[in-house]
Specification:
- The protein has 250 residues and is mainly beta.
- It has a single domain, classed as Alpha-Beta Plaits (2-Layer Sandwich).
- Helix content is 12%, strand content 43%.
- The chain has 4 helices and 12 strands.
- The strands form 2 sheets. Strands 1, 2, 3, 4, 5, 7, 10 and 11 form an 8-stranded antiparallel β-sheet that branches.
Amino acid sequence: MKVLVFDIYGDFAHFRKFYTTSSPLSYPFPPPSTVRGIIGAILGFEREEYLEKTKDLLIGVGILSPVKKIRMGLKYINTKGRSGGFDPTLILSRKQGNSARARVRAEFVKDAKYRIYVSGEGEVFENLKRMVENHETYYTVYLGKSELLADFDYVGLYDGEYQEVSDRVDSVVPVDVVEDIFVGENQILAKELVPTLMDIDRTVRRFEEVVFNMGGGSIYGEFRNLVKVGNGEVVYLWKNRVSSPIQTST
């Protein structure tokens, strides 16, 4: 198997947690479905089609910089008119009842940097490899919100092979492939429940608990069903195969 590796980074990132409303919290890293959106932006896929066109790609996510979070105030403005469509007059209107303006404090990841692993074959994978290597993108790439612009660097294209057992993992990993974790002073570990499988109509079909290193870098322990990349890193790659019921893995 071939594994494309590239880094993506920005000053700030926000990957909204599904259970937060008025005060949005952020995942420390982009979930696999968000990475597919980033790939769709690079390749020029529309919002309605990127999940379908990237469904055969395997996705992995590594954290390269320590996770630092801050909160900043945002102002939201309702621009939908009575018909439900965009009404530009509401942006300037301050009359109560016409324009709904809300101030919220949102959580952001500061100095975000991630390593993305993509495996696949065919036209979509080859086009992605070519565009990343040439630092080309069809749409602007951002980290969760359109205001949070991102840049990316090509790392390489490597051979990959499955590892039934490993004593190290260099990416975010689901808990169901963790046999044991060696707790050490260089590991600041955390766990999150993230969406990892999404249908083409953007319905989340699977949530999984994952483990990651808050300081960035590797996790040491006993793991199974990983992929060893030609650059020496060992990672977990998610599929996007949909089953009908919504699933939760813990």
